[in-house]
Amino acid sequence: MRVSMLISLIRPIGPVVIGISLGFTLSLLSVTWVEEPCSNPDWNRRDEVALELDENPYSLPAGSLQNGENVEDFEPRIVPYKPVQQQTPPKKFYRAKYISTELGIRERLFAGVLTSKNTMNTMAVAVNRTIRHHLDNVVYFTGMRNRKIPHGMFVVTHGDERLIWNMFQTIRYVLEHYINEYDWFYFVQDDTYIQADRIKSLVGHLSIHTDLYMGSPEEFIGGETEGRYCYGGFGYLLSRTLLLKLQPNLESCRNDILSSRPDEWLGRCIIDYGNVNCVDQQEGLHYQRFEMGKNSDPNKEEDIRFKNAFTVHPVLDPAQMYRLHKYFTEIELQRTYEEIEKLQAEIKNTSEVAFDGNRSAHWPIGINPPFEPKTRFEVLRWEYFTEDQVYTCKDGSPKCELQGIDKADVTNVIEIAMGELNKKYKPVLHLKKHQLINGYRRFDPTRGMEYTLDLQLEVVNQKGRSRSITKRVHLVRPLSDVEIIPMPYVTEATRVHIILAVTVHDRDYVNQFLEVYATNFFEMSENAILSFLFIYDPFQAQQVNQNDIFANVKAKISAYERKYPVTKIPWISVKTEAPSQIKIMDIISKKHPVDTLFFVANVNTNVNSEFLNRCRMNTINNWQVFFPIHFQDYNPDIAYHNQQPPPTIDLIRDAGHFDRDVFDEACFYNSDYMAARTKMVTDVQENEEILEALDVYDMFIKYSNLHVFRAIEPALHQKYRHKVCNPRLGEEIYHRCVKSNLEGLGSRSQLAMLLFEQEQGNST
After folding, report:
1. Strand, coil or helix: what is 610?
2. pTM score, two decimals?
3. Strand, coil or helix: what is 131?
4. CA 331 to CA 716: how far, in whole Å?
5. For 291-316, how does the pLDDT look when each residue is reduced to its tens digit (9 = 90+)?
6. What's the pLDDT score for residue 48?
7. 611 contact partners, CB below 8 Å, separation of at least 6
8. What are the residues whose beta carbons fall under 8 Å from the beta carbon of 5, sequence distance 6 or more?
9. pLDDT digits 0-9 by tens, 611-620
10. Which residue ranges does UniProt annotate as crossing the membrane (predicted)?
11. CA distance readout (Å), 595 to 370, 494, 526, 612
């Protein structure tokens, strides 16, 4: 009984006891019973010192070695400080001016024309006129030249008439100046007609890493050289990699190779040191050429090789060169038209399977679709015209005479319309124009000028019967390729001389101008100088000592000079009855250097730094003058009738308008003004009143070839002021001033509402 109770008590803890016992047993079996000192295992190597064991096997005895050093004899060592030698500053890294230079991108084709002193002004000029606008860089190489170089040609003179020497100097000049800028180099004589576009297309399909010598292959006459050279009459194409191989051996070619012809000499040099023969085909592309007969007529030549030729040789005179150019231009134009028709047919066929069907192909096929306005303010306006008159005039008149370029445009459009109609209906019908009933045109910025013509026509069939019909036609004059015109480089660091002419009517507004100017320029140290020009009439000038009408203004200027000691505000007094802009600028121009940048301001103008920067960027010496159009506030009594005007007026339609009738503000360089003024001297001697009849804007338009840049300027903001128009100035200037005053009263809707209220008040 007791045994069973004991077993029942032990049974639950039995597995635990057994597990603990097994754990101890296994741990004892895994213990290593060999006693070893606690040491680095690397010390057991043969060439290291063994350590004697002390009573404590895990400690080192005094005087033992540790890492080869005696612990008892160890003394701290003082390591002297050695300053780190300062490294030389790294060289400044200069970035390339153009990204193409940094990436190693070169231009495609260089063209060199071999000419002479006798043919420079004849054949070379003809070559230049036929290829210059097709190729980026054309250089003319000659031994000797005349004193006067033809206009628009870059000529390199070698100073010797020997042909081989000139060829050697030409190749050396190209290697020194152009080898890193171009991939392909094309050389041709001046008695050869070149189809430049075909040469450009050829090099556009060739690999630039090929050693290529391409032209019209010819066998060498005599000598031991094997291979073929390229005949110079038809031109030849050299790759950049091939010229680089010739570069170190060019002197050897000059000294060792004897030849009477420059093309043979170059061919021998290329074969000897470049191991390349002349070929007329490469990568499936053929160099097409044609030999011209003495009495050949391009218009009668039927040979297909002539029509596909890259070059034609020989050309006997410049007239034949121009005839060839006319012929090949017509061929290229016809091929372009055929390609356009082919692309239009492909677009039309492709549109059949589009989601919208034929509606996805807009007319004309290949031209951008018409502009779609999103709001009523974006709707493009159509102009109505007839053959003699147009009903949209610049001066706001309802109708004016159609003349000048507009007349030529309408005439040309009608001729094109009649030509296309006859092309469509011939030979069944023949159409003759009686008159233009209605004409409409508008400029669409996405595609070009659109025309809609209602023509009254006489239709004649093959039997001679005729009848009168009315036909509506639609035409589009598409926009051509946009050309980027390079502009001279300008900066925003140029100092601006601000010229402010003040009359007796402007005295009350000078204080406000100076307050704004001081805030924007004196306190910000802007790179600008303000100069005043006080204008007196003869009576005011006589009383200047007793009663100076500008005394308060001059005192204000002195106060600002005391407040800002660094600032100086010069002023000049002038006596005149008719203060025209040209007379004023004549005085100012003489007192400043020729490179001075002027800004002619108005006393109502609020000038700021933003505008001055645009004045600097938009005014280019010997290139462009800038006439900004300021924003003029409306009369607050009309624009805010029965309302309180806001403290600051925004540039919105109901607050004001850009005054296109005022040309008071202008930015130009003194040198440009002096050049235009010099051209005006003859007319002034005949009629001195012209100085008062014209302003500076008119002078630049009439007597200068500079670009006159006229654009709205939101940074120029003027408050409303009724200007005093001087009848002594020119009639046109006076009428512009009156018109500016009238249009500055308010918008049409505001004036109409004011008139309506007055009529309502009168009726009651």
Report:
1. helix
2. 0.55
3. helix
4. 54
5. 988 778 888 888 889 989 999 999 99
6. 40
7. 628, 713, 715, 716
8. none
9. 999 999 999 9
10. 12-34
11. 47, 10, 19, 17
